[in-house]
Amino acid sequence: MSAVIEKAVSSDHPLGDIAEKVYNGTRISREDAIRLYQSDDLPAIGALGEFARRRKAGPGKEKYVYYIHNMHLNPTNFCVETCRFCSYANPSERSKAYTWTVDKVIEEARKGSDLGINEIHMVGGLNPACNLAYYEEILRTMRAKLPHIHMKAFTAVEIEYLANLEGMTYEEVLKCLIEAGLGSMPGGGAEIFDEEVRERMAVKKTPAPIYLEIHGIAHKLGLKTNATMLTGISETRENKVDHMLLLREQQDKTGGFQCFIPLKCYYEGTNIQSEVVEPSASELLKDVAISRILMDNFPHIKAYWIQLGVELAQLALSFGADDMDGTIGEEKITHAAGAKSPLQLAKDKMEQLITSAGYQAVERDTIYNIRQVSAVTPVELHEPISTRLASIS
Ligand code: V47
Ligand code: SF4
What we know:
Blueprint: H1 3-9, H2 16-24, H3 30-38, H4 42-57, E1 64-68, E2 70-73, H5 102-114, E3 119-122, H6 132-145, E4 150-153, H7 156-166, H8 170-180, E5 184-185, H9 195-200, H10 208-220, E6 224-231, H11 237-254, E7 257-264, H12 281-294, E8 300-301, H13 305-308, H14 310-316, E9 323-326, H15 347-356, E10 360-364, E11 370-373, H16 385-389
Parallel strand pairs: 1-9, 1-10, 2-3, 3-4, 5-6, 6-7, 7-8
Antiparallel strand pairs: 10-11
The structure holds ligand V47 and iron/sulfur cluster.
Residues 85-87, 155, 186-189, 191, 226, 228, 230, 261, 263, 265-266, 304, 307, 325, 333-334, 337 line the site of ligand V47.
């Protein structure tokens, strides 16, 4: 341990006992996580998140921040559900509702392929016209025509819907999709697991036990998956900690989660804004740092720049995030609700954002194999992390 860290651990700072656990690699408890949320010492929380990130990264990779050259595809915005925070599905103007043919999906994928992408993140509404056969055909055609592209597709919500639509089990649906070419699953659809929040937000789909069960089955079938948490929908800090603890518990059992993505709600086109508290920048940074510390069995934490905005996403890297997600192509879900971030980033812009924040940009594939470590040396920051660590002494 460095002298600075020794100093922090032995301090009488109010978070000193939690810092000691983090430095010793001891799991923190629900109460510890709630105390971190309640603390106003944001630099100290950030320093702990950064420390946890570095240790997780392993020797020689402490400064690595990953990104992927990818695109999002959303084959349909028609949905049988009506979650109150969702502006993407079921637009009030009928002309904006769409369901793509398989050919249209492949045509859009080909545009991304021509730009050099290697992953497609495909999710959509729950649409009876988009049944299992439709998705199998997309996956098979993709594998035949664009075999170099990894298909990360279907939230647990879509798997639940397809199983009910087809009268099949979750496992049967997943096996069919894997057989057709599914490579991994994204983390969407978790929202907040707390039942009261879900009721207020009219979330009828996929309660926590089913979300976790579907991810667990996917892990057992050999798929890597991600997990999310949507904030700014009237949740409490306790709700957030409990959400993360359920994911940590599932990861202990089945181990296939790669990445946790804290999400932030945008409100344009919804009627919930008067009932919710919009998370502040410091609360969003706490979500990153506390998830990095609490979910010690998750390999990666994502700073989703589409929702954080690029500047806050850069800052989130020094709070424990080690992944900037992807170049994206064209994001629809958050932009439908008013996000002002760019729709996409070029690869060199992504690398520049990472290196100028003081980290080493690393292009990865979906399952975190390294494709290329950027030749650009990270900018040396004027205020290194050790200076901030000193603030908890
Ligand atoms: O599941 C819905 C959320 C999610 C809104 O796995 C909203 O790598 C903000 O899951 N404002 C989709 N968010 C995004 C998602 C994701 C993104 C990036 C990477 C990965 C991954 C997953 O967006 C939905 C829902 O939770 N959402 N409405 C809204 N108004
Ligand atoms: Fe449908 Fe998902 Fe939107 Fe809910 S969040 S309405 S399930 S697309």
